[in-house]
């Protein structure tokens, strides 16, 4: 492994495990492009897995909607991993002390029941749909781990899993093919009050287009999406930052709801 990649991965992992806010990566180890960023991300995943965070069992896709691209000032999708230790089912109570600054995003979750091998790329939305076993409503838990994230470039954020801090995943809906997925409405409620809504088609025209983007991006690195993994396809609603005592619900028409309480 390139020494700069290894040092950058250790730098990120050290900040994550110590709960320290991160400045931009030092100049000598800062990735200059997305290729370098994903190499650091892979090395970072290995460190965190060996440190007890579990395997990367899912993927997140960020910046898939115009609202999120405006929110972050980044004009293309970005991907990250989701560690087993950070995944919850249906509802979760999350200590605010576990996060530097926590947020929630309302997302459609895809469950894969078939591989999408690198050799099969390039994929399109129709092609990846054949590998989907079920859909679910979900909350991606995100974390602002930075002194000023708006001052950071996309490669630095990618190297650190692009804000991911976990996921709360609803009950799988295997009958999703009866739904007009692109037309589904997602909404976020905080403490019983509407906090925002959006349409699934806001995610790159269709959430499956985001899934195809991820499969193709991984394929460029010789990697495949694998049966049994899940993918958070991107936030339908702008990120909502939360505080202790907040009760958050994400609802997707036809797919149900999930809940997170920050204690």
Describe the structure.
- The protein has 263 residues and is of the alpha+beta class.
- Helix content is 25%, strand content 32%.
- It has six helices and 13 strands.
- It has helices at 3-18, 34-53, 66-72, 125-129, 154-159, 207-219; strands at residues 56-62, 78-83, 87-89, 91-94, 102-112, 132-143, 164-169, 185-190, 193-199, 230-235, 240-241, 247-252, 256-262.
- Strands 1, 2, 3, 5, 6, 7, 10 and 11 form an eight-stranded mixed sheet that branches. A five-stranded mixed sheet has the order 4-13-12-8-9, with no helix packed on it.
- β8 (185-190) and β9 form a beta hairpin.
- α1 crosses α2 (34-53).
- The N and C termini lie far apart (40 Å).
- The mean pLDDT is 94.
